[in-house]
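How a chain folds remains the central question behind the approach discussed here. In the encoding step, the backbone of a single protein was reduced to a row of integers, each denoting a local shape. We regard such an encoding as a compact summary of how the chain folds. The sequence in question and its structure tokens are set out directly beneath this paragraph:

___
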Amino acid sequence: MHGPAMSGWLLMALCATTGAYCLLRTRSETAEGRRTARAEALMGFGMAAMAMPAAVVTPPEWGWAVYAVLFGAAALRALWFSRRSGHHLHHLVGSAAMVYMAFTMAPGDGGGHGGHAGHGGMATAGGIPLLTGLLLAYYAVYVLRSGARLIPVAATAGGGGPVGEVPVEGGWGTRPELALACRLTMGIAMFAMLLTL
């Protein structure tokens, strides 16, 4: 369990944990918050499944099609809800990236469980370099922007305490900094998965 297998296990555990926390958030959010948390949970669990090392579980030949259909539907849903919230545009990009990675998993010349975890398929084994580069650039900016938002500020505009000490009524499930940390985690994981295409 060294090298790529170890990083696959770590990525899988990180994404699954993030997905589980997002599921917990659905119990304590507003209607829009629940919708967002469900989309993020789907993304976390889907990324965890894609990151599973091929040496342990070889996905079925048709597994890529399941991912493509599932995340294609999630992309259409995100497109529909992006009318209300700009954050759903990020979900649209994420779902589209998952569909793209699913197509790189499709059985082809390379065979196996390739792409980000050794999958084969698409015109070139790693997908389309320009599209991969654009997605990498998007996620690099997203991760840097999300990380900067987690940095505590000395005081709020109203003269209160630090931003991280906002009173929380619903418990740890509604803490905005934890939700942001989950988004940052999934952004880093998506960047890592795209890097290995």
Summary: Residues 4-25 form the longest helix (22 residues).
